[in-house]
Design a protein that fits this description.
Elements: E1 4-12, E2 15-22, E3 30-39, H1 42-49, E4 62-70, E5 83-86, H2 96-99, E6 127-131, E7 135-137, H3 144-147, H4 150-162, E8 170-174, H5 178-189, E9 193-197, H6 201-209, E10 214-216, H7 223-230, E11 236-241, H8 246-255, E12 256-264, H9 280-285, E13 288-291, H10 297-308, E14 318-323, H11 327-334, E15 341-345
Parallel strand pairs: 8-9, 8-11, 9-10, 11-12, 12-13, 14-15
Antiparallel strand pairs: 1-2, 3-4, 3-6, 3-15, 4-5, 5-7
Length: 346
């Protein structure tokens, strides 16, 4: 009898189908990973609520597991039985973006890279089939729950690296959700003084516990005025927008210092939302407005090493761990403001 596993598929708002599939055999350049943990990103949350509607979708892209099989021509330092991180983002390697070093925004990232009945990263499942470049060895001493957070931390790492933070820079992180908190930790490691803007009192308090030098409540005070007051009137050297609110970007441009940089980390919703900015600010202050998307291979490699070597502690951000059978309960919990990352285990 053929061995099978379960895979979760989003088929509509608050509708999840569980497919029973045969365990695949890896091709010559592939690896088979037994999924042990998958964190529930805001993307899966939006698919669940219907805010995003790319149906059907085999979700789950923050994945860790155990390496169980390797194809004949996979050359890796990971051994069978090792704990690994599965980087499920497709990078074709031959489109113009990949060849220009932008494999994080590969032109073919959403096109099928192998024969499949349902598109998507498919990490919410018992097994995941990877191409060789998607496999990263992690420390066998770290929990699967921590290792699966490699993907979101790598996204934040790319953002912070692009921010070109220098020691003693004044950095503002807008939003104290899990991604804002990852920016806080990484900016602190880079030697910056970090200000966090967050209206939720519990999250603001948590940000201070995690090392924020100052916290702003933008509903009580003018964001721009408070940033300038906290930076001697100059403004912030770098501002990371880790919320999906367009107004945050507009205010960040007003609050950044001369020569400063505003980074749009979070996608803005609803998609297609426009912002209004005085273009003379770019002329007179020489500021930069940019953003980042996902992560590249180097970001993932550095992040796996950070987690494996204990250079960053992600345990405070694992709010809830539930079995795969309680996926829907996990998604509902992930939508609450009192959770950071909810992880399902297989």
């Amino acid at each position: 009898m053929t061995e099978t596993f379960q895979r979760a598929v989003f088929v509509g708002p608050k509708q999840i189908r569980f497919d029973e599939l045969p365990i695949p055999e890896p091709g010559p350049h592939q690896a088979l990973v037994k999924v042990k943990a998958c964190a529930l990103c805001t993307w899966e949350q939006r698919m669940y609520t219907g805010e995003e509607h790319f149906y059907p979708l085999a979700g789950g892209h923050e994945v860790s597991g155990e390496l169980v099989k390797l194809g004949q021509y996979v050359h890796t330092d990971a051994q069978i039985g090792d704990r690994v991180m599965a980087s499920t983002l497709n990078r074709c390697g031959y489109c113009e973006s990949c060849r220009r070093g932008l494999d994080n925004i590969c032109d073919n990232s959403r096109k099928p890279s192998r024969e499949t009945d349902v598109p998507g990263p498919a990490g919410l499942a018992g097994y995941v089939l990877l191409d060789d470049y998607q496999l990263y060895r992690a420390s066998n001493d770290k929990s699967f729950e921590e290792i699966c957070l490699t993907e979101p931390l790598a996204c934040a790492l790319r953002s912070v690296r692009k921010g070109q933070i220098e020691r003693a820079d004044n950095v503002v992180v807008v939003g104290a959700g899990v991604m804002g908190m990852f920016h806080l930790l990484l900016a602190r490691q880079a030697g910056a003084r970090v200000i966090v803007s967050e209206p939720n009192a519990e999250r603001a308090a948590f940000a201070q516990k995690m090392g924020a030098d100052a916290v702003i409540d933008p509903t009580q005070d003018s964001f721009v005025d408070r940033v300038k007051a906290l930076t001697g009137g100059r403004g912030a050297d770098v501002i990371f927008c880790a919320v999906s609110v367009a107004q945050a970007v507009e205010q960040a441009v007003e609050a950044v210092a001369k020569g400063g940089r505003v980074h749009v980390y979070a996608s803005i919703h609803p998609r297609g939302t426009k912002i209004s900015i005085d273009p003379n600010l770019f002329h007179s202050k020489e500021i930069t407005l940019t953003g980042t998307m996902s992560q590249n291979k180097e970001d993932v490699l550095q992040t796996v090493r950070m987690i494996s070597q204990g250079l960053i502690d992600l345990k405070p951000f694992i709010s809830l761990v539930l079995p795969f059978a309680k996926l829907e309960e996990g998604l509902q919990a992930a939508l609450r403001p009192d959770t950071y990352r909810v992880v399902v285990t297989m």
